[in-house]
Amino acid sequence: MKKYIYGLLLVLFTFSSCEPKVEPTKFSVEALNDLFLTTNDTKIKFQDILDNHKGKTIIIDIWASWCGDCLKSLPKVKSLQAQYPKADFVFLSLDKKMSTWKKAIEKYNIKGDHYYMQSGWKGAFGTFLNLDWIPRYLVVNKNQEILIFKAVTADNKNIQTALSSQ
Length: 166
Known about the structure:
The protein is an alpha/beta fold. The protein has one domain (23-164): Glutaredoxin (3-Layer(aba) Sandwich), CATH 3.40.30.10. The protein has helices spanning 2-16, 29-33, 46-51, 68-83, 98-107, 124-129, 157-164; strands at residues 35-38, 43-45, 58-63, 88-93, 113-116, 136-140, 146-151. It is globular and about 35 Å long.
């Protein structure tokens, strides 16, 4: 009888831990208030970054110039830009030095709005995203709702589906 109960408990525990996690559709207050730096070294809240693109679909690319996967994905990002010219592209950098970040934007001819994540991986924004890998892509709709919370490749089919529906 004990084996039966232990087996039943194991099955219940396994299935209860397999529940799909609900991804957020709104940014947390802490993430919205996290400070970034512009290419002109001006501080800006993430909410203000979103507001600069109000009424537009936004693709957010979190990257760094030292990240091989990020650099390999740039052609795919540029392809998305060509396919969806009405979408705005926002690049958030996790580079260690701002000078390296700025040089990479120019070197790789990355078009879009660029911001430096001064709070890093463990700041309010990174924590909200549970950031554990880059590149990381998000899609935000015209109402500042998160459509795609976690994609790690620029050619993720969910990104194209979300962009096509906008």
